[in-house]
Design goal:
By secondary structure, the protein is mainly alpha-helical. The chain is 66% helix and 5% strand. The strands form 3 sheets. Strands 1-4 form a two-stranded parallel ribbon. A two-stranded antiparallel ribbon has the order 2-3. Strands 5-6 form a two-stranded antiparallel sheet. A hairpin with a 7-residue loop joins strand 5 and strand 6. The longest helix has 42 residues.
């Protein structure tokens, strides 16, 4: 009977939703990042061609500086990767110790960030809807900048979603905003190489394990779970109470901040599955990196290291598996292991404890077998040039 209950818990709708949505967010965010990078490279090539045409003319000096491509991608350095677990710990402590006095600030900042991220998520859909009447001309909004019609529509829709979420506090809208944050972070933040990826993920693994397993010894409670599940006062309610509109203030629902994805169960009322955004974004950054490397290796036809031993025919199938496929399967297995552990121990588990080894370990092994480990560790996107003359 216990085995049946354990198996039914594994296929619960909340668990299945967690698996499907987290994997879809990583896949979509990774391909969105790859598409943005390719569009940026195409713009740079067009600009180089324009410069080449005008280089012999004095008109080069009147080129419009506004036409220069803007790099929206943020690359994490070694120093940032090493400091990120420390910064995350400080932020977690501030939210734990000063949540009551700063919850209005947390709610407003989170709402603004979620609105921008959700607009980024909606932008492709808005571009598709406005394609028949869409133009690349940007409209000026003063000090706010210049935006296309699709960007304006995405921003308006995102603003409306955030307003409805504040007024209702519905978990589905919170999840939608969290999904926007996941996609935006995966698509716009890049890992430059495998060394930075390893430093970042191992550091965050230690951070996750400490605050889930050992924080209760210092603070008499699980700090990570406490911060993740603590609702914030509604900004509308706080403002209404200051204006002595107590009926409005008391009716305003508390807000669960979109730092996690929550999926209620359809089978068990009151049961839900929760996954932190960091458990999606951080492994997602690694998968985005290997997807970029797969694409770059395919377009450049990069040679493998010359000193790698030739693999036997029996394991040649490794070369037919991309790094992205390997890491995505590893993420699924890590998430499955984390879910099984939470069911066995009936307690919150640090998901990165399982996700990092299952994604990073097979990736390192496959990179070694394929002869790409040294290149991926330091300079994965270095341009490789074939020698003009082959030595015989």
């Amino acid at each position: 009977m216990q085995a049946f209950e354990w198996a039914s818990a594994m296929v619960d709708s909340s668990r299945v939703s967690t698996f499907v949505i987290s994997i879809l967010l990583i896949v979509y965010g990774s391909f969105r990042s790859l598409n943005i990078e390719q569009e940026q490279k195409e713009k740079d090539r067009d600009k180089e061609r324009q410069v080449a045409v005008l280089s012999s003319s004095s008109l080069l000096a009147i080129l419009n500086p506004g036409s220069e491509g803007e790099n929206v991608m943020q690359t994490i350095s070694v120093w940032q990767a090493m400091c990120m677990p420390i910064g995350a710990s400080i932020s977690l402590l501030i939210m734990f110790l000063f949540f009551d006095s700063l919850q209005l600030v947390f709610a407003i900042c989170t709402a603004v960030l979620a609105m921008v991220a959700f607009a980024f998520l909606l932008l492709p859909m808005c571009q598709y809807l406005l394609r028949p009447c869409h133009s690349n001309n940007k409209v000026s909004f003063g000090f706010c900048g210049r935006f296309t019609s699709a960007e304006v529509l995405a921003s308006v829709l995102s603003f409306l979603i955030v307003c409805i979420w504040i007024m209702t506090g519905h978990w589905l809208l919170m999840d939608a905003l969290g999904m926007g944050l996941c996609v935006a972070l995966i698509a716009l933040v890049q890992l430059p190489n495998l060394k930075v990826s390893t430093l970042l993920l191992i550091g965050l693994l230690i951070y996750d394990v400490f605050w889930v397993f050992f924080s209760s010894y210092l603070f008499s409670t699980n700090v990570m779970v406490r911060v993740a599940t603590r609702p914030a006062e509604n900004p509308i309610g706080i403002i209404a109470k200051k204006l002595h509109l107590f009926s409005v203030g008391n009716s305003a629902p508390k807000l669960s901040l979109p730092g996690k994805l929550v999926f209620p169960s359809l089978q068990n009322s009151g049961h839900f599955s929760m996954l932190g955004l960091g458990d999606i974004v951080m492994p997602g950054l690694l998968l985005c990196f290997v997807l970029r490397f797969d694409s770059y290796k395919q377009t450049q036809s990069l040679p493998s290291d010359a000193n790698v031993t030739v693999l036997p025919t029996s394991i040649k199938y490794y070369h037919r598996i991309t790094y992205f496929q390997c890491s995505l399967v590893g993420y699924f297995l890590g998430l499955l292991t984390s879910t099984i552990s939470s069911e066995i121990f009936q307690a919150a588990q640090p998901a990165l404890l399982y996700l990092v080894p299952f994604t990073l370990g097979p990736l390192l092994l496959m990179a070694y077998l394929k002869g790409d480990l040294k290149r991926m560790w330091t300079e994965p996107f270095r341009t490789w040039t074939q020698p003009k003359y082959l030595e015989v």
